What we know:
Layout: H1 2-29, E1 39-42, H2 43-54, E2 63-68, E3 72-75, H3 77-93, E4 101-108, E5 111-117, E6 136-138, E7 144-146, H4 151-161, E8 167-170, E9 176-183, E10 195-200
Parallel strand pairs: 2-4
Antiparallel strand pairs: 1-3, 2-10, 4-5, 5-9, 6-7, 8-9
Helix pairs in contact: 1-4, 2-3, 3-4
Amino acid sequence: xxxxxxxxxxxxxxxxxxxxxxxxxxxxxxxxxxxxxxxxxxxxxxxxxxxxxxxxxxxxxxxxxxxxxxxxxxxxxxxxxxxxxxxxxxxxxxxxxxxxxxxxxxxxxxxxxxxxxxxxxxxxxxxxxxxxxxxxxxxxxxxxxxxxxxxxxxxxxxxxxxxxxxxxxxxxxxxxxxxxxxxxxxxxxxxxxxxxxxxxxxx
Length: 203
């Protein structure tokens, strides 16, 4: 009845508002003068904020973070958080409730590789590049469908502005792993630090 119609209208309004926001973000990122504001930022602080965001998501996904100790990266923190929120949100959306997610920071020379790992259905072979296209999304259910998928397109543009790239490969045992790398702010510091795992439950 009326209540169901109102709910449908509200859902469509939310979708259109999100689409308008993303289109505006794309317009900004695709300007020739778009630049990121790179500053030394604590990697541990970035991933802690990502863990806090995960706690707001539906599905109660425990998040395991692996963070190199005492590493600062050169990043536009607000924009990289936009990337992390998008990747974690996608991982949660395509994973069964209660399924753990992982965010790993791996020191590789003068860069840090950041991986967001899920154990959902993964992306069908041959469709990996499609999920990064503007106005498209991978359904993760063995079908590829058109849609208002702008998050991964935006995320890749932001990462490329940092001098890296956003990639996708299959998680061993099933799922998807998105990865990108950031420059270490002081490459001479902490090169031998080992990662220290910490668990951030979402309950």
